Amino acid sequence: MNATSPAGALLLCRAEPETVRPVAHLLRERMLLAPAGDGWSVLVPEGRPWQGGAGAGDTDVEPVDRVVAGWVTALAVGSTWPVLALWWDGDRAGCTLASGFRRPVGYVWLVDGTPAGEDEAMRTFAERLGLDPVLDVQSLEGLTRPDPDADARIRLRGLLAVLTRIGLVLPPGLDPDTPGDRLYAAADDRPEAEPLVWTGWREVVRAELDAVESSRLGPWMRGPRARVLAGAQLAAGLPLALWGLRRRGGGWVLAGTLLLAHGALGLAYDRIRGAEGGASETRPG
């Protein structure tokens, strides 16, 4: 990794693509989705938020770490599985893990591999990802110690090596430190990769309803408990979206918006399915 390396990122989801798809659609970003081993999927973003769209001087460009922090938060609050982002730019590289409503945790290395994070973060990674609390934690903690022979790229590869023990296998060509456009092209060449195309809220919400019903969460989406959870999502989403607007953090605005959307979805779920069930009962056979 060198000082001129363009930014890039990968989003690693501990779930199968069919489970990730409806939630990832809500990001409304151009991405590719592909399987990444046993029980894992990878999202490869095109990278416009940190590349900019108006050429030199574009004031809307955001740092890659800030963008992916918002994305993983948005994905995690809308799911039951953890999401880990690997990111890099010309100066640093790092990872950000989000899981449910818990505070995201991250770690950063300087371009030469110098650790610049809190050691405790790696223990949190291991706990939330279900890694071995002894052997895997020892490997992760090794990434937080000085090593003159390990630059930021090697650090990220070391993290990926630990994740292979719980089933992660990245498709060929998706390597840390690869520029975002080359990552996207490499993923696009894979026959198993699929583009995520925004088709509008109606289709996305219906797809997510189907996904929820086919999961173990379906029974929990009705009744008093579901209404309490939906209310909590609405209560958390509004201040998060407003906080993101004040800080001009598009990713955090997205996370707050997605919380609001899931809260509204939770409140509407029983009514929508109840109405559809009533219609099917009255429909002539």
Question: Overview of this structure, please?
Answer:
Helix content is 48%, strand content 13%. The chain is globular. The chain is built from ten helices and seven strands. It has 285 residues and is of the alpha+beta class. A hairpin with a 6-residue loop joins strand 5 (92-98) and strand 6 (105-110). It folds into two domains: 8-195, no CATH class; 200-282.
Fill in the keyword field for this structure:
single chain; 285 residues; alpha+beta; 2 domains; seven-stranded antiparallel β-sheet; 10 helices; 7 strands; globular
Low-confidence stretches: 53-58
Strand content: 5-15%
Q: Main beta sheet: strand number and arrangement?
A: 7 strands, antiparallel
Taking Cα atoms only, what radius of gyration do you get, to the nearest Å?
Answer: 20 Å
Strand order of the largest sheet: 6-5-4-1-3-2-7
Mean pLDDT: 80
Short account of what is shown:
The protein has helices at 17-25, 48-51, 64-77, 120-129, 135-142, 152-163, 180-188, 201-213, 224-247, 250-282; strands at 8-13, 31-35, 41-45, 83-88, 92-98, 105-110, 194-196. With 285 residues, it is of the alpha+beta class. A hairpin with a 6-residue loop joins strand 5 (92-98) and strand 6 (105-110).
